[in-house]
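Students often ask why we bother encoding 3D structure as a string. The short answer is that it lets us treat folding as translation between two languages. Here is a chain of 135 residues written in the first language.
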Amino acid sequence: MKAIHNFQKFPLSFRFEEDNLSNRGINNWEHLEALTEEDILLLCKKGCGTLRNLKHLRCMASLICKLNIKQEEAALLIHSGISSIEALARLNTQELLNRTSRLHRNLGTDISQPLSTKNAQRLINSAKQITKITF
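And here it is in the second language, the structure alphabet:
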């Protein structure tokens, strides 16, 4: 049976979308991942959020559901410029660590290493396995 990844509290920049999605019965990442482009455009027309935010959330949903990762990890990847499993599969461990570390430096966080080498390698290997990309 496929795991259901329920929403946790969204970051402040997505709270409007969170409330509107919840009101429409979209309350887990699997539902969000299943939205088509037309569904997202319709949600935008109904005032449920911005196109940019809804697409970001759908990318996060794909990462969460396919890689079975936490919401925070998916957000870190998205905000580091890694918006798909294919993009993640093409990175090496050092590139992923550089991107996530750069984001943390730019945000001014106190975390010395936002993603461990072991977790970075695990994410990349999972992405490669899903996409069948080998280097």
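Translate back mentally: Residues 74-135 form a domain with the DNA polymerase; domain 1 fold (CATH 1.10.150). Keep this in mind for the problem set.
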